[in-house]
Structure formats: C-alpha cells, structure tokens
Amino acid sequence: xxxxxxxxxxxxxxxxxxxxxxxxxxxxGAGASVLAGCxxxxxxxxxxxxxxxxxxxxxxxxLAQIEHLSPRVKLSIARGMEAEHQVKIDYAKLINxxxxxxxxxxxxxxxxxxxxxxxxxxxxxxxxxxxxxIPEAHSPVNPPDAPQMTTANSPSKRRAIFDVNEFTPxxxxxxxxxxxxxxSLADPSGMVITTRDYLSRYANxxxxxxxxxxxxMLTFLSHLFSTKTVLFVxxxxxxxxxxxxxxxxxxxxxxxxEAEARHFMLQGYFSHQAELMRSLTRYYRQCDIQLVPFxxxxxxWTQLIEVLEHFADVMPATSPLNVQVQAEMEALLG
Length: 334
Prior knowledge:
Strand order of the largest sheet: 3-4-2-1-5-6-7
C-alpha cells in the first residue's frame, strides 16, 4: 500500500473476485446510516435520556453530570429507567432518518450503491435502510396525483431477520436477506443496546455438543467469516469495541492458523492521518481484514458515497454459484 490516501481507492483483487463469485457480504455500520440522516451514537444516547427527562424521570442536571460518559453507558442508563419507571422511549422517532426514507437523496445514494454490492447483507444498525432495495435514480416516478403503478423498477422488500434463532447458515445463502445482528426497530424491546445486552449476545459458550447452550450469533458469524468475504462499511474508530466483539469472539482460525476467507474494511482518513492509517492497517491485518482507506479531505464522510458508487459500478454483485453453496453446506454437515 502506498503512503498516499486516494479519494477513490483501488479495489483489491480479492474483493473484486468475491463480488464476481457471489460471496461478498456487505457488513454495514452506523456511519452509513448517519450519512443517510440517522443519528450518531451520541445523539441517540442523548435523545433517549431526554425522553426520560420529558417523562419526569430524569433531569437536565443529571444529564450534565454524565455528559462525559460513553454513548453505550448513557443508553444503558436510559434502558434502566425504561424498566424501572415504565418510561416509553420512542426509538423509531430517535433512530429513523430526519428526512425520512423516500425523498432522501443522500440516503438513497448510499443504500442504492450498497444494494448493488451484495445479495445478502449484515448490519449492526436498527434502522430499515437495508430492508428495501433502492431503485435506480432514473427510474420513472409516478406524479403525486397519479395512481400508483408497479413497474420493473419498483423497490422490492428484502427479508429482515432480527431473531437470533433465524441466524442460520441456510438463511445466509438466501438472496435478499438482511441480518440485523443487534435487533431492529421492528422489535425495539429486542434491540441490543446496553452493555449487558452486548455481553449476552456475544457470550463465548458455543458448546457445539450441547445445542441448548449454543450461541447462535457466534455460530452464524463464524460461518459468515469462514465461507464469505465480508466488506465492512460505515465503521470508524469509535466502533472498535463493537468490531472486536464481532471479529475476535466469532473468529475460528483454520487449521494452518490463517483465515480461510479474506475480508475488507472501507475507512476514511484525512491526508495527515497517513501514519494512523498505516497503524490501523497492521491492527486489522491481525484480524484477517485488509484496510481499504479513502481520503476525506474535500468531502469528509460524504466521500464514502462516491467510493461506494464507484465500487458498485466496477464490481456489481452476482448470485453465488450452486457449487459454492453446495460446498458450504457439505462443509457445515461434515
């Protein structure tokens, strides 16, 4: 990798090959949804606490005392007040994009491009952006007063999975699937938000010989990382804790000590952060991930949109070959 960070990075051959073979799975984080108008973790946490203030179960004085705490700790406090005082926090109001989903140009660009990169998606986001395929921008749009007509370019629904019992290798090979690892707005009570939620979701008791103790999340992630090529999108330095949960605890090395699949991560940096980028390149390599950096100097995080659009044009996803799916199932049964 050269020292210079390009606005549009070169596509690694392994990444392009995975897309062509139909085994590329975009793994989408909060950074993508923030571009589409959803809140940052800090905004979500403060919004949840303000909902408790509006319910007269918390005060601005108390909020000021904990302003230095991490968003996850703040959300844990808000969840605790929900349970203790029966506070009703409207997570849909807090999480859904401010501009909505339909007439949201930036959001549509982000998720239209992501939709071209894979047939199956994994996300730690709660929002519904991935749950519907975004049609091409030049698709015909019915005037507001005209009867709504179904066309070949009409958006189609993907199947959103947020019940951990449905995180199965078989579902991973189905097209038009979205796995919400941390839950979905469709079931706010089941969203993974607090520190205890994360510890429970990523508990290490796999217990292969004791099905009742199997952690289906880790089994699913292990299968994902060993049979697919993952492209992480929308994760930054603030997400390292989440990534370590996902990558390190789910990782099962191959017999020769190396990963069976190559994985990639898109991350943005300013030009003066070249040394940071090199350091993180070494860090992610230890996790079997190749960093794909892009330059943020001119457009900041919105540069990610142009990167995704370029990647989608150069390496649109294909469906996995039947022989690939069969080999994965045989390996699982073996």
